[in-house]
Design a protein that fits this description.
The chain is α+β, with helices and mostly antiparallel strands. It has helices at 3-15, 67-84, 111-118; strands at residues 24-26, 36-38, 44-51, 92-100, 132-138, 148-156. It has one domain (21-156): 2-Layer Sandwich (60s Ribosomal Protein L30, Chain: A), CATH 3.30.1330. Strand 4 (92-100), helix 3 and strand 5 form a beta-alpha-beta unit.
Length: 158
């Protein structure tokens, strides 16, 4: 009769859910992005499509601002999308940034302007996580005034 409680206890231990492993951000703490992000099994992945900025004035033509302003607009929209799904910017594990050459910068992408906006959302005291990321210059986006498009993948703990 003593075996039954012992077997029941062993069974309970065997089926108990293991503690959820944490997402691992690989890279120097001072770097603006992670070299890699390791996501353990069981996490839900949320894919956010390429988001472009909202105009700061309705125009005509609509005004979208410089690269920094557009980056802030895009990341604010992404933050709202993630919040609606129960996630935060700290859950972003991968980011793809597309920048159009800025006419005010002789057709070169404004990487510094993008980074100014980016650093408002990532690697801060309030939100220290940084995603893995790629930033590329492209010839054009869907509207001639657009300088920034960003897509992200975020993960949610099981």
């Amino acid at each position: 009769m003593r075996r039954l409680p012992i077997l029941a206890a062993l069974f309970a231990l065997a089926v108990a859910a293991p503690a959820a492993a944490q997402v691992k951000h690989v890279g120097a703490p001072t770097a603006p992005i992670a070299k890699a992000v390791v996501v353990p099994p069981g996490y839900t992945t949320v894919y956010v499509s390429g988001i472009t900025p909202q105009p700061s004035s309705a125009g005509p033509p609509p005004v979208f601002g410089d690269t920094k302003a557009q980056t802030i607009s895009v990341l604010t929209q992404i933050q709202d999308i993630l919040k609606a799904e129960g996630l935060t910017m700290g859950d972003v594990v991968m980011m793809r940034v597309l920048l159009v050459g800025d006419p005010a910068k002789e057709g070169k992408m404004d990487f510094a302007g993008m980074m100014e906006g980016y650093k408002m959302f990532f690697g801060t005291a309030e939100q220290p996580n940084k995603p893995a990321r790629i930033t590329s210059q492209v010839a054009a986006l869907v509207a001639p005034q657009l300088l920034v498009e960003i897509e992200v993948q975020a993960v949610k703990k099981p």
